[in-house]
Amino acid sequence: MRTFHSPLQRRHAPEKELHNGAFVPFAEHPGRIDAILEALGPAEAPRDHGEEPILRIHPRAYVDFLKSAFGEWRAAGRPGDAGAYVWPVVGRRPLTLDRVDARLGQYSYDASTPIAEGTWEGSYWSVQSALSGLDAVLGGEAAAFALCRPPGHHAGADYMGGYCYLNAAAVAAEVAIAAGRRRVAILDIDYHHGNGTQDIFLDRGDVFFASIHADPKTDYPFYWGHADERGIGAGEGATLNLPLPRGTAFPAFETALERALTAIAGFDAELLVCSFGADTFVGDPISFFALETADYAPIARRIAGLGLPTLVVMEGGYAVEALGANVRSVLSGF
Ligand code: OKP
Ligand code: ZN
C-alpha cells in the first residue's frame, strides 16, 4: 500500500509530559516513526499542499498561535517546551489576550500537549502526509496509508489536546468533500475517543463520525465519547460512539466494529477515513484493551469489506517494540 510520511514530522519532539502527577518522557516521540518505517520500508514524501486545506478546518488565529507560541515562550525567558498552566472555565467570557500563557490555555483543554520548537513544522507535514494519501485514494487507489505523527484526532478546530495539534483526518475529510465527495465517513479505532474530530463534524450531516474507544467514564478524554453523544442539528444521528470497557479483546471489539460498519454502510458514504490507533494493543503502556498483533488484519479486512476508497491515518500507539508489527498487520488486511 502506498505510504506517505515526511522526515520533517520528526521535528516535533517535546521532552516531557505531565503523567499521573509526574513529568515523564513524552510518550508520543519520533521513535514511533522509526518503528513503523522499519517494519514497512521507506515511505513516499508527501506533496506540499500549502496552508489552504488546513485553514478549511482550523481558523487562522489558531494556526498563527501554533506557529508563534514556542518563540514567544522563549522570548519570555522560559526553559523547556511551552505548556499551558491556566485554562478558561467553560462559560468564561471569550477574552482575546496577547500573553502566550493566556493563549496556551485558550487554545487547549489539557496538559498533554506541549509546544516544542518543531511542533508547527511536524504538525504541518503530518497533515501534508494525510493530504497526499487522500490524493492517492481520490486518484483511484483502493486504500492509502498516511503515517501521521503527531496524531490529530483530539485536536478541534481551534484547540490542541492529547498530543494533537492539527486534525489530519478532519482536514482530509473536508478536502474530500471540497473535491466533490458528497458524503464521507470517519471511523476512529484509536483506544481514545476522537473528541476533536467529533467536535468538528458534530453538526454536519455530510460527514459521519463513528468511534470505538475506551469508555470515557474510566479513560481519557473523560468529557467526550459517551454513547448518548449522537450529533446535533443537521448532524443529528451522524455521530456514533461505541465505548467499551477496559480489558476488551477481539470478540467484543469485533461486535462493536460490525455495528459501526453497519451504520457507515447505511450512511451511503463515498469515501472512508480510518483514524487508526495501535494503542488498542494488549501491551500498550498507557491503554487497557487486549487486542493482539494478529487481530489487526481481520479488523482491517472487515473495514475493507465496506468497499469504500479508504485513507488510513495513523493516530496513537505507544508500545514501540510492537508498533511496526501492529501497523503491518492492519495494512495487510486492507
Ligand atoms: C493520544 B491518542 C494521562 C495523560 C493523558 C493523553 C493521551 C492522549 C492519547 N496520564 N495523555 O489518542 O493516542
Ligand atoms: Zn489513543
Automatic annotation (TrEMBL):
<keyword id="KW-0479">Metal-binding</keyword>
<dbReference type="InterPro" id="IPR000286">
    <property type="entry name" value="HDACs"/>
</dbReference>
<dbReference type="GO" id="GO:0046872">
    <property type="term" value="F:metal ion binding"/>
</dbReference>
<dbReference type="GO" id="GO:0016787">
    <property type="term" value="F:hydrolase activity"/>
</dbReference>
<dbReference type="InterPro" id="IPR023696">
    <property type="entry name" value="Ureohydrolase_dom_sf"/>
</dbReference>
<dbReference type="GO" id="GO:0040029">
    <property type="term" value="P:epigenetic regulation of gene expression"/>
</dbReference>
<keyword id="KW-0378">Hydrolase</keyword>
<keyword id="KW-0862">Zinc</keyword>
<dbReference type="GO" id="GO:0004407">
    <property type="term" value="F:histone deacetylase activity"/>
</dbReference>
<dbReference type="Pfam" id="PF00850">
    <property type="entry name" value="Hist_deacetyl"/>
</dbReference>
<comment type="similarity">
    <text>Belongs to the histone deacetylase family.</text>
</comment>
<feature type="domain" description="Histone deacetylase">
    <location>
        <begin position="28"/>
        <end position="332"/>
    </location>
</feature>
<dbReference type="InterPro" id="IPR023801">
    <property type="entry name" value="His_deacetylse_dom"/>
</dbReference>
<protein>
    <submittedName>
        <fullName>Histone deacetylase family protein</fullName>
    </submittedName>
</protein>
<dbReference type="InterPro" id="IPR037138">
    <property type="entry name" value="His_deacetylse_dom_sf"/>
</dbReference>
